[in-house]
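> run fold Alpha/beta hydrolase
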Amino acid sequence: MLKRDTAVRHLFTVMAIIAISLAILATVAQAATPTHHRTVTVDGLDIFYREAGSNQSPTVLLLHGFPTSSQMFRNLIPALADQFHVVAPDYPGFGNSAMPSVEAFDYTFDHLANVMDRFVQQLGLSTYSLYVMDYGAPIGFRLAVKHPERVQALIVQNGNAYDEGLREFWKPFRAYWNERNEANAAPLKKFLNLAATKWQYTHGVRNAEAISPDNWIVDQYFQDRPGNKDIQLQLFYDYGSNPPEYPKWQAYFREYQPPTLVVWGKNDYIFPAEGAHPYKRDLKTIEFHLLDTGHFALEEDGDVIAGHMRRFLTKYVVQASN
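> ok
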C-alpha cells in the first residue's frame, strides 16, 4: 500500500512538472514573437497596423471598436502569435492611421469596410478568422458578406448583428438618425469626452482598479485631435446604416455557417447580452461564453478570451485545414 501511495505521488509530481514546463515553454514562445508596428498606404491613406506571428500560420484579423484602435489588442496579439499570424489595423480617423477631415473623406461604415477590404488585399490575406468588436462588427460583417470565401471563423466580442442588442443606450442615437440637427447631436457629443471614454472601460467590470488608465488616456488623446470629434459624430450618424444590414449578415450566417466563438462581456450597457444570444439562432457551430465583465472584455478577461480562441481556432481552423 505504501509503495502504491509513493508511486501515485511520484506520478502527480511528474505531471505537475510537465504542466509547469509546458506553461514556461508557451510563455517563452510568446515572448520570442515580437509585435511589429507597421504602416501601409491604402487609397492614398497611411493605415497603421500591428502584426505578429508567422505569415505561414492561420491569420486572425482583429477589428477594433470605438473609441479605441488596435491598441485594444496589445495584449491579445502576443498571446496568440506563437500559433497564429495576427493582424490588427487602425481605421482611418482612429489611432495611428491617417485622419483626413470629414470634408476630404467619406466617414461611413461602407467606406471604412472598403478601405479594410483593400488593406486585406494589399497584405495578401487570402483567408482569415475575424475578431469583431463594437465598430468592428459592422465593418467585419461587411467584409464577410463581400468575401465569404475568406472567412474561416468568427470571434464575436460585444459586436451587434441583431435588433435585440440595441436597447436604452441607443435612444439618443436613434433620434439623431431620424433627424440630424444640433439638438439631437448635443447628447451624443457627451460621449466624446474623457469621462465617457473612461466609463466605457470601467462600467460593468468586476474590479475597476485592475483596468489601466492608459486605455482612456490614449484613446482620448486621439479623440481630442482637431477635427476628430467631427469624424466621430459623423460615424455616430452613419451607425444608423447598420441595422438595415442585419438581415444580410444573418443570411450570411445561415448560408455559410462560419464556426463562431462568442465571448461577450455580459455587463455591457452599450451592447448588452441580449445582442449575443440571437447568434445561436442562425449559427450551427457556435461556442458561447458570457463573461462577467463590461464592454472592453479583453481588459479584464483577456487571458480567458485568448484561451478560448486558441482552443477554438485549433479545432475549427488548424485541424480542419490538415
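The chain has two domains: 1-32, 34-321.
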